[in-house]
């Protein structure tokens, strides 16, 4: 059973998704509670590599109010992704290729655990984005005509 907590809709519009991976996420207790309430934003988030670790950078998890005062809490701190060494090396290689980046698509729960779906993606050009909008509008018109 999985339940979506946050989705990065902007990533699907700005990037062409080539392949996806499921990764665990290292969070503090109050971040888990805030995430399960849905106080997460993946807009503008990306994956970076430091040594042998993959980090989710710029993902915003709002402070969990019932946790009390947390004086040094940074909602956009880098959080470690839990991936196999082989997957980390593969993703690092892809991120070094010209035009490719690693972006999170969604955060969800799988059983009790919080997971992040990350993707190898290629940036779309403006004309690709226009084509996506045009296709979406055509599908909307067809649905309206059928109703």
Mean of the pLDDT scores? Answer: 90
Choose one word for the global shape: globular
Could you estimate the helical fraction of the residues in percent?
25-40%
What letter string, H or E per element, gives the SSE order? EHEHEEEEEHEEH
In order across it, which strands form the biggest sheet?
Answer: 1-8-9-2-7-5-4
Strand coverage percent: 35-45%
Distance between the termini: 33 Å
Number of domains: 1
Q: What profile does the largest beta sheet have?
A: 7 strands, antiparallel
Topology-level CATH name: Small Protein B, Chain: A
Keywords:
147 residues; Small Protein B, Chain: A; single chain
Structural notes for this entry:
With 147 residues, this protein is of the alpha+beta class. It has a single domain, classed as Beta Barrel (Small Protein B, Chain: A), CATH 2.40.280. 33% of the residues lie in helices and 39% in strands. The chain is built from four helices and nine strands; from the N terminus they run βαβαβββββαββα. The strands form two sheets. The protein has a seven-stranded antiparallel beta sheet with strand order 1-8-9-2-7-5-4.
What is the strand and helix layout of this fold?
Elements: E1 2-7, H1 9-14, E2 15-25, H2 29-37, E3 40-41, E4 46-50, E5 53-57, E6 60-61, E7 79-82, H3 85-96, E8 100-110, E9 113-123, H4 126-146
Antiparallel strand pairs: 1-8, 2-7, 2-9, 3-6, 4-5, 5-7, 8-9
